[in-house]
Amino acid sequence: MTSEHVTEAETVELLEPQPAKAVDDRLIDELVSRAQAEALQLTGEGGLLQQLTKRLLESALEGEITDHLGYDKHDPAGKNGGNSRNGTRAKTVLTDVGPVEI
Q: Of 4, 45, 49, 75, which one is least surrounded by beta carbons within 10 A?
């Protein structure tokens, strides 16, 4: 189709931003392809889904504590402030994909 056949309404429609997807299909396809190439199970103990769940939980918890404390990890603003980060401990979270150690 050439530009002379495009109406103004069609132009506006083409230029409108598309809603962002929460999960990028290409990213998911790449992860699944890499898992299959490396003979990694998609589900089960140590599988792709369990690893993704672990990373997602850790990232969410890190963001939550940063928001709560008001400063990033290793930021000098939190030093000797009375409410500072003081390390981590391993914890096991029971999820729909099985237990995940974070």
A: 4
